[in-house]
Amino acid sequence: xxxxxxxxxxxxxxxxxxxxxxxxxxxxxxxxxxxxxxxxxxxxxxxxxxxxxxxxxxxxxxxxxxxxxxxxxxxxxxxxxxxxxxxxxxxxxxxxxxxxxxxxxxxxxxxxxxxxxxxxxxxxxxxxxxxxxxxxxxxxxxxxxxxxxxxxxxxxxxxxxxxxxxxxxxxxxxxxxxxxxxxxxxxxxxxxxxxxxxxxxxxxxxxxxxxxxxxxxxxxxxxxxxxxxxxxxxxxxxxxxxxxxxxxxxxxxxxxxxxxxxxxxxxxxxxxxxxxxxxxxxxxxxxxxxxxxxxxxxxxxxxxxxxxxxxxxxxxxxxxxxxxxxxxxxxxxxxxxxxxxxxxxxxxxxxxxxxxxxxxxxxxxxxxxxxxxxxxxxxxxxxxxxxxxxxx
Length: 392
Ligand SMILES: *Cc1c(COP(=O)(O)O)cnc(C)c1O
Prior knowledge:
Blueprint: E1 4-5, H1 16-22, H2 24-27, H3 38-58, E2 65-68, H4 71-86, E3 92-95, H5 101-112, E4 116-119, H6 130-136, E5 141-145, H7 159-168, E6 172-176, H8 188-191, E7 195-199, E8 210-214, H9 240-278, E9 282-285, E10 295-300, H10 305-314, E11 317-318, H11 334-338, H12 343-347, E12 349-353, H13 360-380, H14 382-388
Parallel strand pairs: 1-11, 3-4, 3-5, 5-6, 6-7
Antiparallel strand pairs: 2-8, 7-8, 9-10, 10-12
Helix pairs in contact: 1-9, 3-9, 4-5, 9-13
The protein binds pyridoxal-5'-phosphate (PLP).
Pyridoxal-5'-phosphate is lined by residues 70-72, 100, 102, 147, 151, 176, 178-179, 199, 201-202, 210.
């Protein structure tokens, strides 16, 4: 059976070159970087090479790169770590309602601990307005965190503009760039944020390893107590194969951006055009221009997204409803609700996220299968038949 993977925003397959680069660090170069002997120092050298490579991919200094266990930990470390370090200055935080749960739930937790959080408004395309951020700023505002690219609808937020406003006033800026790094150019000198989260498994690296970039002068508290690894901010013996894999995957992804970005955008447009041409009552979510090239969020009115997902799975096409993380829960996506979709429409949405292994032939098969399957499912549906005559 065909296996067409259109769920690259959930995770990606590790590139063969990345797996190969990691292999020696499981078996032959196994030392603990904290050991003083030569075997340990070989591990240390590999770790520091990986750190330097990541720093150069992001245009920052190696000492500003901290390896973590992934996007969730990086977000927690940035947001909780800064809130704890700066709470004497103020207890007001600003974020968006579109954040991944790995940031949103951190803010909800901080609210229970006495912090006040402003959730910025977003428009129908999922954009935050920097002017709304400016209006939200108070004397006691210490941190703003807005994601660079949304994982459900792909909208790219004006983080650079927000960062410029924040830094004028001494407010720290964090961005969850998990869905942006390796998809769009991310130059930290240009972006101007103080902290940025990324994770390897979203750009063809291994699962369970991520990075927090933290500007040199900014002080944050660690989440864990323990050894002095990662300059005390992330105690615990380092995941050297993971760091090596992350660095390699990042270098490859950034190096290929210029060709792979337009290629993916072309495939995504081919997918959207085909589906919109073949079906009535379908709409695309997100901003038409300000979005990552690999992701398309589509509402199929009169259908349950999950039913369509399962029917496509049978035909060898892997997609997702809103996001992998909220799959299996009954609540419609908080992102789709925040951009103004009613719960029924939010539940009729599928996310297609393309990757480097997808071909035009796969997209054509996907279009054909989606169009056929939606027509079939709608023909069973009493709502579409009676109400709208929308079987087509
Ligand atoms: C996947 C994802 C995360 C979580 O990263 P993990 O490495 O799986 O912990 C955080 N934020 C966004 C936007 C994501 O897409």
